[in-house]
Amino acid sequence: MIPAALVTHLRAACRIVVLTGAGVSAESGVPTFREAQTGLWVRYRPEDLATPEAFLRNPKLVWDWYTWRKKLVSEVQPNPGHYALAEIENHVTAFTLITQNVDGLHQRAGSRNILELHGNILRTKCFDEGTLVAELDDSGSVPPRCPRCGGLLRPDVVWFGELLPSETLHQAMQAAKTCDTFFSVGTSALVQPAAALPWLAMERGAVIIEVNPQVTPLTDQASYVLRGPSGEVLPELVRTVWGGN
Ligand code: OAD
User: How many other CB atoms sit within 10 Å of the CB of residue 142?
Assistant: First the structure.
């Protein structure tokens, strides 16, 4: 059930920003990070798999783990939550989708103006030079080697201890500061700097909407909390506010 005041607000909204996290892909079958039992960081230690030091210690282990995750995301499909977000983009003047996800499912669902804060698991780059590499060599070395410099290749994702892509972060902060409406969807709102974005929007007077089945540090401050899975809540919201879908 979408509150009537929120429906009225959204029909007049001009600048919408959506921040998404792993929860938006959960209904596609992509595991989240911190949820009891199923979260990746409950089953694996980030220090072993998601830091530059871990990669240098055991590049094959890290490469193989990301290859497993890459296969997993390439075998799943966007869910109704992803499609609803792509639909919202058609109804407002300015729409920015800021995602912490590396799975590329928003692109596959048709979202266009996307800022990937944590990179994309489907891309590969050189560990030494940072240059993107489109074709992987088939020499059998694991990880494969950079065709330019011979360095080790790694996934183009942000690891713990690394900086976010600075231009992308800058654009995300600008969008948060200038929006009239900010959605936080499927994120535990714990990992910085992404977790600061709704607070930036709030400081500038934006209406904050949280979509999450669980409580987060943002919940108490949100203008509206839509409690439930995004694959159900977002399509209902789009239907109620803009019709169709
Ligand atoms: P988390 O695993 O921390 O949080 C997932 C959130 O999704 C939780 O708040 C869940 O309640 C919620 N959730 C679960 N199922 C949902 C559903 N069907 N619909 C809506 N919400 C649902 O994942 P993130 O917040 O994305 O960073 O984590 C942020 C970052 O921490 C990730 O990008 C990753 C990780 O370490 C890097 O790898 C750099």
Answer: 13
The secondary structure of 27-60 as a DSSP string is: TTT---SSSTTT-HHHHS-HHHHSSHHHHHH-HH
Distance 23 CA to ligand 1 centre (A): 5
- From first to last of its 245 residues, what are the pLDDT tens digits of the chain? 899 999 999 999 999 999 999 999 999 999 999 887 788 888 889 889 999 999 999 999 999 999 999 999 999 999 999 999 999 999 999 999 999 999 999 999 999 999 999 999 999 999 999 999 998 877 889 999 999 999 999 999 999 999 999 999 999 999 999 999 999 999 999 999 999 999 999 999 999 999 999 999 999 999 999 999 999 999 999 999 999 54
Q: Is 106 a catalytic residue?
A: no
Residue 180 CA to ligand 1 centre (angstroms):
24
